Amino acid sequence: MHNKNIKRIVQKELKKNYPNWNRLNRKTKKEISRKVLAQVAGEYDFKQEISASSDELLGVEQQVQTKGIISLDQMADIVNESKNNNIMKLCGKSRFAKYIKDEELRFIDQLLDNEIINRLLAYEGYSPAMRDLFPHNMFRAELLKTIKYPEISYRKFCDKEYLGLDRKQNRAFIGLSLREKAIIDHTQLSKFRHSLTFVQQINITVRVLKSTPA
Fold first, then answer.
1. Could you report how far apart the first and last alpha carbons of the chain are, in Å?
2. 155-191: b or e for each residue (b if 16 or more CB lie within 10 Å)?
3. In the prediction, which pLDDT does 126 show?
4. Cα–Cα distance between 92 and 209 in angstroms, integer?
5. Helix and strand tally (H, E) in the chain?
6. Same domain, 143 and 110
7. Which domain of life is it from (predicted)?
8. Is residue 78 located within the same domain as residue 116?
9. pLDDT at 184 > cutoff 70
10. Are residues 129 and 87 in the same domain?
11. Are 93 and 199 within one domain?
12. What average pLDDT does the segment 87-105 reach?
């Protein structure tokens, strides 16, 4: 976060000291930016506590927030609530993480919290008791297809060749049973992808940002 704070300070200095910034040519802007950055970085104390909010560090504090979008600070509260809830803590992570050998998938799996994903992607009237497949299963399946199998169709992906019982890593990442033969139907997954709203996509992005080390 210190890098983001330095960037914030630089932008503040540029705005304060160069009111005609938009009129400058690209070469002049680069020279001034480099000079100001060197000065700010040279005087910056990396041991200091950052007082700026998450929105300020990302440069979005003045943006009008779309209804339903969760801020980084609000997401932090949701994450802390989840960590302090023993039931959510037990349900939040993959039960079959030991079967995920691929480094990329394992890294992504560690970023995801199933219960929070269910909360962010649940539609109005949704109840966990209504189904065997939860929003986090569909979201993880969509991620798996996008990352590892972008070249194949949804119909082909949702078949035993990729989601059969012998494909333990894929099933473990999605959260499917390693004993029962149930497979996600391709129409379900395709429908899920098209049903995601802009707000839901942004909130998932905010959740991942709160999971990623500074």
1. 5
2. eebbeeebbeeebbbbbbbbbbeeeeeebbeeebbee
3. 58
4. 17
5. 13, 0
6. yes
7. Bacteria
8. yes
9. yes
10. yes
11. yes
12. 73
For the residues 127-132, what does the mean pLDDT come to?
60
pTM: 0.63
List CB contacts of 112: < 8 A, sequence separation 6 or more: 94, 136, 140, 211
Do 6 and 107 lie in a common domain? no
10, amino acid identity:
V
Using DSSP's 3-state secondary structure scheme, residue 156 falls into helix
On the 0-12 / 13-18 / 19+ scale of CB atoms within 10 A, 105 is: buried
Q: What is the DSSP letter of 66?
A: P
Asked if residue 6 and residue 104 are part of one domain, the reply reads no
Q: Are residues 95 and 196 in the same domain?
A: yes
Report the candidate in 192, 198, 209 with the shortest Cα–Cα distance to residue 68: 198
Are residues 92 and 155 part of one domain?
yes
Range of the domain at 159: 72-211
- Tokens describing residue 98: 């030991």
